[in-house]
Design a protein that fits this description.
By secondary structure, this protein is an alpha/beta fold. It has five helices and five strands. The protein has a single domain, classed as Response regulator (Rossmann fold). About 35% of the residues are buried.
Length: about 120
């Protein structure tokens, strides 16, 4: 199946998402968002088919990460699935304008996650 990177400041959320994706047959790369620079470095060094990213993270805001990926030649076409506990329609609209592949609200439902991932990977 596919290798998928998970970037979330919550270790529990990263583990949950990784578990759901591994159960679907995917390989996962859990990335602790210590800084935008470090996350981008991991994404450049470890090719992935999809990025699942939390929207609100103190050291590496999801919107900044999405923007940086879209500006990076190596990452600009990477499908990105954004996950957030905040139901901010303006932010969602900005994310869609940046070309995200999908959006899920927390708490994340395992079947909804699997469906969104399949949809994002299908293009």
């Amino acid at each position: 199946m596919s290798r998928i990177a998970i970037v979330d400041d919550s270790r529990l959320i990263r583990a949950f998402v990784a578990g759901v994706l591994r159960a679907q047959g995917h390989e996962t790369v859990e990335v602790e968002p210590t800084s935008l620079f470090e996350v981008l470095k991991v994404l450049r060094e470890t090719p992935v088919a999809l990025l699942v990213v939390d929207f609100i993270m103190p050291e590496c805001p999801g919107e900044s990460l999405v923007r940086a990926c879209r500006e990076d030649v190596a990452l600009r076409d990477l499908p990105i699935l954004v996950v957030s506990a905040h139901r901010d329609e303006l932010s969602l609209m900005r994310m869609k304008q940046m070309g995200i592949s999908g959006f899920l609200f927390k708490p994340v439902d395992a079947s909804a996650l699997a469906a969104k991932v399949a949809e994002a990977l299908a293009g």
